[in-house]
Amino acid sequence: VQLVESEGGSVQAGESLRLSCLASGSIRRIIAMGWFRQAPGKQRELVATATKYADSVKGRFTMTRDDFKNTVYLQMNSLKPEDTAVYYCNAEIVPQGGSADVSYTYWGQGTQVTVSS
């Protein structure tokens, strides 16, 4: 199982970016997907899941999921310099070949988002 994120990018404050993350491989079932980020010198933090957004991104970021495509998206609007970080896709997946009741947590490789003022 792999999570592959789209390229991030460098934008000016106030602009928008959309990230995507494709889950591929021997997948029996995807339980949940979400986004985290890690800024330099800081701990990795949750950005968005199906039921929760970080306070710092509420009203600006929207996560959507296409179950048919095994893909999750993060639409980021009104970006701020403090949004600069490496963004990671995260998923809890039940892989093929194992127990139907056992899931594992997978991470994408990370993608850099840089917002300049």
Describe this structure in words.
With 117 residues, the protein is mostly beta strands. The protein is 0% helix and 56% strand. It is built from no helices and 10 strands. Strands 2, 4, 5, 8, 9 and 10 form a 6-stranded mixed beta sheet that branches. Strands 1-3-7-6 form a 4-stranded antiparallel beta sheet, with no helix packed on it. A hairpin with a 6-residue loop joins strand 4 (27-38) and strand 5 (45-48). The radius of gyration is 14 Å and the shape is elongated.
Question: How do you describe this structure in short?
Answer:
The protein has no helices and 10 strands.
Descriptive keywords:
elongated; mainly beta; single chain
Secondary structure blueprint with pairings:
Blueprint: E1 2-5, E2 9-12, E3 17-24, E4 27-38, E5 45-48, E6 61-66, E7 71-76, E8 85-95, E9 104-107, E10 111-116
Parallel strand pairs: 2-10
Antiparallel strand pairs: 1-3, 3-7, 4-5, 4-8, 6-7, 8-9, 8-10
Helix content: under 10%
Radius of gyration, rounded? 14 Å
Share of residues in strands? over 45%
Query: What's the pLDDT, averaged over the residues?
Result: 96
Quick one: overall form? elongated
Helical/strand content category: mainly beta
Largest sheet: 6 strands, mixed
